[in-house]
Backbone:
């Protein structure tokens, strides 16, 4: 079976499923391009309020295809550079995508699969989920934004343990470290991710887009700059029709229905 990124709809949530069963859902250039295309389409579709990324067959993603990487060693360096640029385009599209993105992880999330999960806004992991930055185990360094993500979410020593040592880490420990949002029973990560998505879908999309943008800007901004950004987003959202809907519903003790 050919590797593909399957797209399905669950209400207002788009589900992207990594499907490459012969290689444990390993990633490749065609999948990167499909991921960018799917998110660009979802961005333009007001009926899509959130996205869930998951893997087929009870596992998330084994990372890169080692056979392809071995073959690329015989090619000019630009060949692998182009492939990584494709992955990075997908990762950056996830980060800049104005709607919530949730990773639903069952089983292994290795290498670029771990990087992909870290790029999402939320991680829902089954109790059997195992995360590993496998790069150093095959004499490689990370890609997919792994060093950026882990350096900002974990103490340096823990990040070094994962990145340099290639240590496997379970969902429970990542949850305790604040990287995983929820740990659920094996086989129920997607269902829990969809339930989370449904709750987010009920909130004003413009407000969620502002919060995501502010979170991404915060790491590189001074406190004064961030205060200015918060002011600008707040004023813009106050004058958005959804603020009128939300405030009126709260005062009336009713449930808002945002546009």
Residues:
């Amino acid at each position: 079976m050919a590797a593909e990124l399957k797209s399905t709809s669950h209400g207002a949530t788009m589900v992207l499923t990594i499907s490459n069963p012969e290689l444990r859902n390993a990633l490749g250039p065609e999948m990167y391009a499909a991921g960018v295309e799917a998110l660009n389409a979802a961005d333009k579709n007001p009926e899509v309020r959130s996205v869930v990324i998951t893997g087929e067959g009870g596992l998330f993603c084994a990372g890169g295809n080692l056979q392809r990487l071995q073959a690329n060693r015989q090619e000019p360096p630009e060949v692998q550079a182009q492939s990584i640029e494709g992955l990075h385009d997908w990762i950056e599209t996830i980060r800049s995508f104005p709607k919530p993105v949730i990773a639903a992880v069952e089983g292994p999330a290795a290498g670029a699969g771990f990087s992909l999960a870290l790029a999402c806004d939320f991680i829902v992991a089954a109790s059997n989920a195992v995360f590993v930055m496998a790069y150093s185990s095959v004499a490689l360094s990370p890609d997919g934004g792994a060093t950026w993500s882990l350096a900002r979410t974990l103490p340096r020593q823990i990040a070094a343990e994962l990145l340099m040592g290639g240590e496997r880490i379970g969902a429970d420990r990542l949850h305790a470290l604040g990287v995983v949002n929820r740990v659920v029973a094996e086989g129920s990560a997607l269902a829990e991710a969809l339930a989370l998505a449904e709750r987010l879908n009920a909130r004003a999309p413009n407000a969620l887009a502002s919060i995501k943008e502010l979170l991404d800007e915060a790491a590189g901004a001074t406190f004064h700059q961030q205060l200015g950004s918060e002011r600008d987003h707040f004023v813009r959202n106050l004058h958005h029709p959804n603020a009128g809907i939300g405030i009126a519903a709260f005062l009336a003790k009713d449930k808002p229905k945002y546009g």
